[in-house]
Amino acid sequence: MSCALCDTPAGAVLWQDDFCRVVSADEPDYPGFLRVILNAHIKEMTDLPVADQASLMRVVLAAEAALREVMAPDKINLASLGNVVPHLHWHVIPRYADDPHFPNPVWGEKKRDTPHAATGDLDALLAGALSRRLARARETE
Amino acid sequence: MSCALCDTPAGAVLWQDDFCRVVSADEPDYPGFLRVILNAHIKEMTDLPVADQASLMRVVLAAEAALREVMAPDKINLASLGNVVPHLHWHVIPRYADDPHFPNPVWGEKKRDTPHAATGDLDALLAGALSRRLARARETE
User: How far B13 CA sits from the closest chain A CA (Å)?
Assistant: First the structure.
């Protein structure tokens, strides 16, 4: 069966290895919205071996750390849902008190129209922060 | 400042240690909706030491495994948001194709009125599954 996360990168790739990738999601209201996508078509975290669960979370939390470093959001939201596309992926979302849905989840009721403008080089800054953090993590393993 | 997750258990406690607890959320549309709540008042995953991040995810994924064992849902949804209560907690939600919001997140638009009836001993079954899984995980550390 066709799967959008198997067939396409599903965003601008900011970091990748042979296990997973971090992409910049195309969400105009949410610049910096990242997705960490497992390369293999697997449905749930607990379908992965324990070591792979830890590897995937290491990348998810590197994405969180990169967003905090580059964007200093008021809160980070993490979610792995997969109801529509049952191929393991994590949403890593920088949230601000005045963003369109805050304090609701981005999937909830919209509260206001105040998209945060993305700086032109946001993807490059995030890619740099991710590479530094994931290189460092690998060295200390 | 007062915090609901510091001041109250915030649900029926199914499992706990000195680091975190698993509670059954009182969500009538979603029997089996679990929350894993860090005991300490900490805001983000990346505010925790790396070893504690791993410990918390071990409990989150034990909750996922317990729900799959006991309830066989169509999908598991995992999320750490904390926009309203910035005290680290994870939502672990069993989803069914005919539940009230599917395939939307539970925070999205409601699609239908079909709450799943909880069996009377659901909390006890989940508590048992959690205890077995978390005891096993500790032995193999």
Answer: 23
